[in-house]
Write a structure and sequence with these properties.
The chain has 144 residues and is of the alpha+beta class. It is 32% helix and 17% strand. The protein has three helices and five strands, in the order αβββαββα. A five-stranded antiparallel sheet has the order 1-2-3-5-4. The structure holds adenosine monophosphate.
């Protein structure tokens, strides 16, 4: 039996506005922001607003909303960063590689022949994250 949802996780704090994030998108049920230790430049995270721990416990309707936002962010990343492809990652439970226990999808822009940065990763420069978030927000606005 998996553990219950823990409301003090870092993404729950971001959702409540208790800690800052480089936000790129928000609607009624989802939010997206930059990953502060990116696997590649432009790495974003998409989360549900619902208190879901993993892909196992989320309600299917909330999961659908999250995947729709993942697609929006992936399309925006392709244009904003001139990416050649996108890697989507989702880790559920520690055994699956999860470190933050609020469901999230990684949206990682890729260039042909590149390699994802290995773990543990460095913190990105905040000015760079702000610039990338701005580029993604303007692509998302154009797409509306
Ligand atoms: P995982 O749970 O393994 O799928 O990965 C958690 C991800 O959250 C990692 O890529 C971290 O770099 C990222 N992360 C951790 N804390 C924050 C934060 N405060 N803001 C944005 N991203 C974060």
């Amino acid at each position: 039996m998996p553990d219950a949802y823990e409301s003090q996780n870092v993404f729950a704090k971001i959702l409540r506005g208790e800690i800052p994030s480089h936000k790129i998108y928000e609607d009624e049920t989802t939010m997206a922001f930059m990953d502060i230790m990116p696997a590649a430049d432009g790495h974003a995270l998409v989360i549900p607003k619902a208190a879901a721990r993993t892909i196992i416990d989320i309600e299917p309707s909330d999961l659908s909303a999250v995947t729709a936002t993942v697609q929006k962010v992936a399309r925006a990343a392709l244009s904003a960063f001139g990416a050649d492809g996108i890697t989507i990652q989702q880790f559920s439970e520690a055994a699956g590689g999860q470190e933050v226990f609020h469901l999230h999808f990684h949206v990682i822009p890729r260039k042909t022949g590149d390699h994802l940065r290995p773990l543990p990763r460095d913190f990105a420069d905040h000015a760079l994250l702000a610039e990338q978030a701005k580029a993604l927000r303007s692509m998302l606005m154009e797409a509306q």
